[in-house]
Design goal:
Oligomer: single chain
Number of domains: 1
Low-confidence stretches: none
Mean pLDDT: 94
Order of helices and strands: EHHEEEHEHEEH
CATH architecture: 3-Layer(aba) Sandwich
CATH class: Alpha Beta
Largest sheet: 7 strands, mixed
Strand content: 25-35%
Length: 186
Amino acid sequence: MAIRKATAQDVPAMLAIYDHYVRDTAVSFEYETPTAEEFSRRLEEHIAVYPWLVWEQDGRVLGYAYAGRAFARAAYAWNAEISCYLAEQIRGRGVGRQLYEAIESILRAQGVRKVFAVVTAANEASVAFHKALGYREAATYCDVGFKQGKWYDVVWLEKQLQPPGAPERFPIPWEKLQSSENTVDK
């Protein structure tokens, strides 16, 4: 078992995991599973600035988590949004917690102050998971996502990663942080 940086070679395995969430659930609000090319583009775009990690077991990728930009404007640069997707056979075994802890550790090292999770309110297990990790509900938006013939509420949860106050520096892109220290390999 290992947590490591996601690579382009992991795209097929990550897509296979994500496909279930797109097709069979309202966990993802996408209607169609992205192509391998689109997913690869997303991976490359994210890892230039934010961490994207996989959980590998016996040579197989069984889960992944990543952070991304929470908001577009420059003054929001100290915030990130986090997501995690796991294969059915490893859910409920602490893998999500380990992936989140690794991502949060990298975000702290980058200088990210606050991390957000955006969760379909109907996914009560995910809301409980985030609360167990120290996230608190910041907002609920009612009837904002329509999928599989019904409307879904969305809960925004937040977690403080840095102490309050003015930041000492602008957040460091993950790409640069990796070149200056070994923050990924466990």
